[in-house]
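Notebook B, p. 112. Complex prediction, attempt 2.
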Amino acid sequence: MQYSFSDEQEQFRDIVARFMREKSPTSEVRKLMETASGYDANIWQQMNQELGLGALCIPEVYGGQGFGFVELAIVLEEMGRNLFCAPFFSSSVLATQAILNTATEAQKSAILPDIASGQRIATLAMCEANASWRAKDVSMLAEPVDGGFSLSGKKHLVTDGMYADTFVVAACVDNGAGKSEAAFFLVQSDASGLRRAEQDGIDATRKLAELEFRGVVAEMLGKPDSVKVDKSIAFSCVALANEMVGGCQYLLSSAVEYAQLRMQFGRTIGSFQAIKHMCADMLLEVELARSAAYQAAQAVHHAAQAESEDDSEMLALASLAKASVSDAYIRTAETCIQIHGGIGFTWDNDTHLWFKRAKSSEEFLGGPMLHRELLMQAWGV
Amino acid sequence: MQYSFSDEQEQFRDIVARFMREKSPTSEVRKLMETASGYDANIWQQMNQELGLGALCIPEVYGGQGFGFVELAIVLEEMGRNLFCAPFFSSSVLATQAILNTATEAQKSAILPDIASGQRIATLAMCEANASWRAKDVSMLAEPVDGGFSLSGKKHLVTDGMYADTFVVAACVDNGAGKSEAAFFLVQSDASGLRRAEQDGIDATRKLAELEFRGVVAEMLGKPDSVKVDKSIAFSCVALANEMVGGCQYLLSSAVEYAQLRMQFGRTIGSFQAIKHMCADMLLEVELARSAAYQAAQAVHHAAQAESEDDSEMLALASLAKASVSDAYIRTAETCIQIHGGIGFTWDNDTHLWFKRAKSSEEFLGGPMLHRELLMQAWGV
Amino acid sequence: MENNVIDSKIRAVQADVRVWLKENWHVNHSLLEWRNLLVESGWGVPCWPKAWYGRGLPADMETAVNGEFAAAGALGVARAGIRMLAAATLLEHGTEAHKQKFLRRILTGEDNWCQLFSEPGSGSDLAGATTRADLKDGRWLINGQKLWTTSAHHAEWGLLLARTDWDLPKHQGLSYFVLDMRQPGVEVQPLRQMNGHASFNQVFFDNAVIEPEYLVGALGDGWKVAMTTLAHERRSADGFRNWGKVSNGEGAIFEEERAENAIFNEPYKWYPQRAGRVDLIMQRARDSGLISDLRVRQEIAALLILSETAKWTAQRARAAQQLGRPQGPEGSLGKLAGSHIARAASRVHTLLGGAEVMLKGKDSEMQGLIAEILLSVPATSIAGGTDEIQRNIIAERVLGMPKEPRFDTGPFRDVPRGLKK
Amino acid sequence: MENNVIDSKIRAVQADVRVWLKENWHVNHSLLEWRNLLVESGWGVPCWPKAWYGRGLPADMETAVNGEFAAAGALGVARAGIRMLAAATLLEHGTEAHKQKFLRRILTGEDNWCQLFSEPGSGSDLAGATTRADLKDGRWLINGQKLWTTSAHHAEWGLLLARTDWDLPKHQGLSYFVLDMRQPGVEVQPLRQMNGHASFNQVFFDNAVIEPEYLVGALGDGWKVAMTTLAHERRSADGFRNWGKVSNGEGAIFEEERAENAIFNEPYKWYPQRAGRVDLIMQRARDSGLISDLRVRQEIAALLILSETAKWTAQRARAAQQLGRPQGPEGSLGKLAGSHIARAASRVHTLLGGAEVMLKGKDSEMQGLIAEILLSVPATSIAGGTDEIQRNIIAERVLGMPKEPRFDTGPFRDVPRGLKK
């Protein structure tokens, strides 16, 4: 049914949720966010071996399980709820969606099985000084050389960039007619001419790096195609939106729970109408955002299965979801801190972990103002 | 002192406030708004003879009292608080400010004494199909003819247009260099070629008309000068902002009062935190808007007295005030209805009278979005 | 039950209706003749009990039967107004005599009904009703005032909530009656709203009389019975949103039905405007040229995100319900979301109108429709439960937060109410 | 008094200060020497009583005296931290012995003070303090925990609010003490905030000892005495906003003062960021080129309208005060306005930063300043009274609306508190 998950999907969610609750309590999150790599290789292995999450929505021919995007969205929601620290978003979303949308069969067969198994961690290097993830803003030029293309320049805000094995790098090639077209390129972490440096993110649970390319030789994925580049980012936006919805839900639950425990003036603060109404408003905002994320996930699910000529509705929903959930997440985070009062502003209280994820996610892959505009454009307005 | 009224100004306010309370209870407002002219000629006469409000801020040489713009702002605030039904805003603000800012000495001497005494009711006809009060948007062309200029075309949203004796009409003249410059022109209501028709306003306490000019011969006020035209509108914006602040205060007081009377669930609704907090938020918004209106009034006060080369700060404050108060007024009106509940949506309850004034004033002389942009421009940004 | 068993049952019922309609439906019937046929056949309300004009079919058969009526282009029983709420309440709490007297004429459309619950002093606090019913010489004398009574001016009967005991706590002192609206002690006055319409009425009772047998449920059970009415009101809220949908068939019987509907639709004609008319936004933005203004595009996008996500949220609730899953929070949020949408739409309409919003009436934008939006939207966050009440309900019932401390639990006589002196 | 009489008095005082400063002020004094001179002359705190280091001048003379100090480039008494709140409280409620022991060293800067009011369980509800003071063998034993204690780690003395009677209602069971911070039973731990700073402390008491003569005011009068401290805190809120303003004179004494200030300013260094740094907006918009984006211009204009009108509103309040007029509502609104400004500024900074806001630290925008804004603003609507408490105060005290119903009026022992079990 269009507006609900199937029983199988609900069961799958329960399994993922249990794993995340067990493996990613905030004590673990706090421990991992202080490490350089930001994740626990053992748990990463368990996640792939026991649950096969890395393989989940990679087609079976490439060593995956062949599930759809809705299942991926379920995984991300549960990860976001628990701030699961792992390069899943980088590898199984950003890089995998870029590869699935642009690479040749041969390339997919070569790369995806290792990503599916979790042995290879991949990520996307797209954003440059202009802090944009849109194909038209990619200015790194890929120059044809023997054995592929040569890449020079910088990429930043590369998630898990310090520990990834493989980079999918966005760059432009001249399409002959004097116009440039964006494409993705494959670069291994040990490539000659590649340097990487840590970046200090406000969200310590999502590690960032800056990459410097000095004539790095790279393989092009498929053909230059800006439309497909944008489409793969749109897919990732939807995944991010679903991850963010999980975070919204955590913050809402946390605020409501605390309001019912914390006493002031001889009563729980949750018995004050001001707090109750803040919680009701949060719920409304979170549920509307959830609907957007789910609806977009379904649209991508179908778009990924049935290659359609016209992706405009899917693109519209992706931007709609990213805009809606970005606003909801940061407001829910602000309200959650407010309801916790001074305690909510302390390091020891967990709220700030999600607040920082919310703030970071708000502009990651494009902020709400941009996506509202892209929504109008996708609607042909 | 810069941020407060003098004792004399406070006493003046008391006198005006008492007059408005006595002459303009809502019973009277409701009666007058159902009439065609929308005002009571007797009370108009009393207002001018007893309080001399029409003469208030017209210089003494033109038969006025020579007070400043701050005193005018006080009058408007008290009128706005009581929805005083009279052509004061049309005659003593819109028309008078246009004349003061652009006319020659001889013209001022000829026209202003009758406006000051209230014998002549003047108004401004500026807005055309594009619904703008900016000099650059005036498209009516004034063609030089014997005895003055000939005007053709339509003006609408002309306040008190059906009963005004004199119209100050905005039109353009070619400045020789192929560019057009806006100027004000004087037209009497009995001029040949002038037709007027009532317009049905959402705010029945401020009557509107559409004027049609078919070769109406008019006298130009001073010289074409778009800057002065815009400046006179800026003055009127400040006057309007102060009038609106009076309305805000009425709505706030009305909401607070009702909340302390109305019982539900065995307690006054004003004892519910939701209502208390709405009232606190309203107060904040109204007081911020009030500061904007007062600050702008003072800026115009000084700008009108000391002809300055650079009006940009005054223009900035005028737009700031119009934007700030417009937003505050409509939100206060919405909240006041909300606190009144279903009763507040009925015709017999007075709230809608101010709601309609708020809605109408929001876009009158330019809406908040326009004025926020004009503020940035005036600040040189 | 297995799906295929259900399917075959549905098919059987559909076949029955089809046959019956083929034999009986004809546009040359008068509306009353036809509805009498429906009532006698049980096909008008197939899920009602067999004893009372129905066929005792399970609730989920209704859609199937309606589908056959639609396919045949046949009209159904009278449904306009609050008659079906009256019927549901009487079916559950009424006596045999009540059912005998009222149900049939509800379905045939011969009697119209209105709901006399809200009062000037009890809006959000419905149980605070102070209209009194006093037993005198074996008959109930009604005194007081009701408010917001849609269609009171053409109703034969009213569902009345009145206080019969002032010494009991608020909810316990109320009783539920059927009131004959056509009597000297009842005065109906239209109530004008700020948008100029007068969709509601005030109803004044000055020693209006109710015979004792018109008490519904037990004495003092008024709140419980009213809950039944309100539950059905909520359940049929979707249906209400279809006001104004009239069949466009040709023939005398359709003319009759359209005339009937016109009367009932009249009070609701501004309801779409009250909700903000999001549907008009895009076209107006294009027509005004403001569609190319980046600022306006942001406002439009934000509004449409709100209205689209609210729609999907309602659909999620419905989908869960259809799957028999426990209702999530989605179902309780529509009303509050609607307020946000209406307010945001009103703002965008203002942006698009500019100073033209100063005008109303036939010479103004869209023949006054835009002005009607701006002057109607403020009702959205009040009517049918204010936003504040909705937030309380959401916080308490959905999120499980503590209830408001209560100050009205003692004898109603002592509860402060009305306007504070 | 006539204005010219006031003027001549002011001029006389100014002349006196000028003469005294000319004779006494010298940059070669050590800071302590100089402050001792100030204390003995009475010019350090001219409006304090003559008996206690002042000259008994009326309060409005302070500005005139300060002006002479500024003109001479002379330093004043120690003012940093909460020492002046301690002094004001002791002047009003302290014994002769308290004043003798504490006041002078407050002014010379030899002793530092901290305020031990807030607790983990009593933030908005300050009177709900549960730190206990029990009289045992003639001395008070203190047990419990305080929170948000700025500068506790370098304070010699603390102003302590503790519960001495659990059977009285909340506000009546509290007493007010001066606590020696340098004792084994007192442990000070810094408390890290979400922005990474640790400006506040937690203070744990494990049988900390207070001699009976360090009770301030009568037993059970703690709330009353604390009100004095808080009133002075509110009054000097403007002064606090000047943290970090240090005189830039040359010479040893200025070095000493700057070193002293540096310690006190340390915890407050992120406060400007907490308030949103509206001052940076325009330049950042220009630098990023977004100043030409119509959407961004709207946001900036709205933010600046908010911050400008809030500034004027505060000035209106001050002007009324200076004219001796009754305070209007303006004075109570600044805190709530500040929350709106900070949140709006944070949003605009995010817009201007785009995805760069994902970064913090020295390599990020403005060497981490922007990130510090985004991660500090959430404290604005909480610290010093949440927005919700502010709205209550505004509604009740300014608008005269009814108080919250109370559930904590009985014996404190029975009042539910802390975290609900």
